Amino acid sequence: MSKYRSFKKLFFLLITSSLWGAVAQAASRGNYATLPETIQKINTNIGELRQRSHNLEVEVHQVEERFGSMEVIVDGLRKQVTELSRNIRDQSEASKVSLESRMGNLELMARRVHSDLQLVKTRYNDSSTSSSQYKQDIQEIKQQMNAQEKLFEQQERNIENLQIALKVLTEALQVGDDKENSPNEYRVKPGDSLDKIAQTYG
């Protein structure tokens, strides 16, 4: 079970890494048009993880119900064993052999049910751990998405400022010989930068 959980976690991390790698690659190339599509794919995968987490919770609930039913069965078997033991003391020697055989079969059945019960408990614990891990992974992805969205917003603002500054510089360089400088024209001065011009005319 521990190896199975490790495999699921590794598979989940590989998917997450590949998705965020696609986002980073799109951002590095300046291809912001595809960023919403990439983020949508991440949201789709988060939805699938939520569905898996829900399925695990349903399975845990079913296991709990089966766990309760098995406890009832074991309790009933124990009562039958106790009753048979009392009958053995009251019956004759001939019937005692038959009752002991039946009691042995019931005890064997009780041991098997107990073994199944232990297996169910193990699966219950594993399912609970997997469900908690999925929830934690989803929360981490949400935090990463929020940080990435803030970074995208800052990059968009920087691009807008650069576009404004380039527009001002272009207008300043297009001064005609017979045209007087208009109030909107700007002459580049020593120490000017694109950010400074963008802040002045933004």
Overview of the structural elements:
This protein is mostly helical. The protein has one domain (2-201): Helix Hairpins (Orthogonal Bundle). The protein has 4 helices and no strands. The protein has helices at residues 2-28, 35-90, 93-173, 194-201. It starts with a helix and ends with a helix.
Concise structural overview:
With 202 residues, the chain is an all-alpha fold. The protein is 85% helix and 0% strand.
What's the architecture in CATH terms? Orthogonal Bundle
Give the helix level as a range of percent.
over 70%
Mean pLDDT: 70
**How many strand elements?**
0
CATH class: Mainly Alpha
Rg value: 36 Å
- Reported by name, the CATH topology is Helix Hairpins
Protein topology:
Elements lengths: L1 H27 L6 H56 L2 H81 L20 H8 L1
Key features?
202 residues, rod-shaped, 4 helices, mainly alpha, Helix Hairpins
